[in-house]
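Example record used in the benchmark description.
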Amino acid sequence: MTGMYITIALRHLAKRKLFSFINIAGLAIGITFSLLIAVYIWEEKQVNSNLKDLPQQYYLQSASREENMYMPLVTPAPLAKALKDDYPSLVANYYRTFPCSANASYKDRHFRMSLQPGDTTAIIAFGLPLIQGDPVHPFRDNNSIVITAETAMKFFGRTDVLDEVLTIDTRKDGKKNYAITGVLKRETRLNTVTTINGFKTDIFLPMQNVAYFLAPDVDKDWNSVSMASYITLQPGVKPEQLAAPIKKLMAMHCNQQLKDNLSIQLVGMDTFYLDTNNGLVRKMCYILAVIAFFVLLMAVINYVNISIGTSVYRLKEIGLRKVFGGRRQQLITQFLAESLVLTFIAAFLSIVFFELLRPLFGQVLNKTLPHVWSFSGTMVLFYLLLVALVGIIAGVYPAFVLTASHLLKILKGKVSVGKGELLFRKGSLIIQFSLAVLVFVCTLYISRQVDYFFKKELGYNKEQVLVISSVPRQWDTAGLKRVAQVRDEIMRNAAVKSATISYEVPDGMNGGGLPIIPSGGSSDAPVNVGTLVTDGNYAATFGLRMLAGSFFTDQDNPQDVVLNEAAVKALHLKTGIGEEIVAAGPQGGTFTVKGIVKDFHFTSMQQKIAPMIFFSQNTGALYRFLSIKLQTTDVRKTIAGVESVWKARFPDAPFEYFFMDDKFQSMYDTETRLKQAANVATALNFVIILLGAAGVVAFSLNRRTKEIGVRKVLGADTRNIIYLFLKEYTSVILIANLIAWPVAYVVADRWLDDYAYRTSMSVVPFIIAGIITFSLTYILIALQCFRTASANPTGLLRSE
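Model output (structure tokens):
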């Protein structure tokens, strides 16, 4: 019986080739796009899935009462270890690290490497697989390291590198040699232990080495909020049970400022990646899932519309089946079988399309999507259920409508649904156009916001700013002097306008903050102000605008500082220039305001411009970057000249750099990916809609052939006939726009609320969406109607 249903279904599809093509094409597009999005979301949700005991793994995250006081990704350094030592019944293991970077060398190979000096528990706590070394005791001593397979290939060209030696340039004690005692297996899936804050770790070192990169015994300093911390809970322990122990430990060991302002939250590692950065990844997944649902829904609506519309061709078949004893259940099964056959044909094509589009779509979403043959069992089951569900949903309504008609009316060739069919068809078209306009308007607003990022006045100039990121970090007077000599030599190049040494560049990652109050203003609450340590060329290199006073120079008093506008307002200073402020911390003391710079966007536009203070490197020799402002059309030649100076001065250091405009663009990588995916979805929406409209119009033309012939005999010309059909769809598109516009306004406005600086709401995107929707539909209808409307009326009237 099943075979007979499938045979009849295939015959029907072959007989109505145009409508079958439209249905298969629409469903194939919808299923392909849904599959691409589903695989992307699945891959995002699988981040950290390769970690051992994942349900028990938690990240310790900071939350401060005062805005911008503490970075959320770091906590008091000894906290995780103390929880394990003092509460072993609650905490099974822990791991702490201070992610940083340094130059590493092997013979004549030099690279900038991402490091994790931290507890030696990392490998065993998270079950990180080794291809070389002992997973139980991966570190032999404090001078041993574990590296990734990629790092081994970069330095040695092979992975069997146990006992080979790498030289790492430390900040405090110069170059140190480390023996390799473990090699991590190449990762097939991202996790937020080996990749922290977007930076993939190359080398793991024992905790004692953190002294070379931060401070001696910092892992024992309760007042140092500096380390990323993880804990593994005992089986059955809930994160709420750690609230009291954490509070007790901080009350016992932390200073009053930390007690008053800092709280610690446990974030599950199974959701940490999705929820970090204000849930940016999770929001992206939700938005893409909704868009994919809309695209698939449109394809299903197309199928239902065309199936109901072409039902007139099958009325006698249905009637004869009923006359010869066919039961309604059998007829319903027949139509569902046809829907499933057509859907599975579309599903087969979608697999082909998926493989063809996978690299391109992966590039759009900045994610490597797996091949179909490497899908997990869960993903295969999801795909089969999706296809079956689409087939059943698409076929249910036509099956029940077509089999419910009265036998006599069927044999006479009359459809029993009458006005209901017309209302349903127009209603479904309105839904389709509404969804298309909704997605289109939201896409336009996403594009406007992304364009706003790149066109808004930033307060600094990012163009032709080359940043060397591999500066050797010898943080003392001698080390600073060496880098300053390179800076000065580079500035003698006519193609270089300026150069500056700094601890940070405007990439959204500042060096922390300090509580500051105006001198004599002890009654005022301290204001947390972000810190920037720079030389005297920073303002000139990045084009910062001075509002008052002047930027400091390398020869200025170490107690001179520069503030931005936001800091002046937050500290309630009168004029700023010449006033004194008091800062706590390592760079603490009393400082005099020398200058005020106009506010500039140091972080993402999701955040308001925060108060900032510039310290001179005379205060402390802290530096990480050498930024160079170029003024040339021959950038390659200038970079070659800079590189020659660099290698002459630092022959054992790599020359690694980036441009500030590229770094700025990477800050909005998620929004850019969303824009590209939304553009693809908008295009697919219109393709599906136009396919459906083409099918409906083609069916209408076939049914109304004689009417058109009569109208032509009575004097109607081609233009009148085309206008007749255009008028029929005008009301549909108009109603769809009126429904979609307010919904799109609310959705776009709420999405833009996540940004402190956002594009304005205007009518322009709505008008553009309306004009394009009308234009595309009108052009399609006019082209389809033209052939019939211009035909000889005699032939039209003879049509059977």
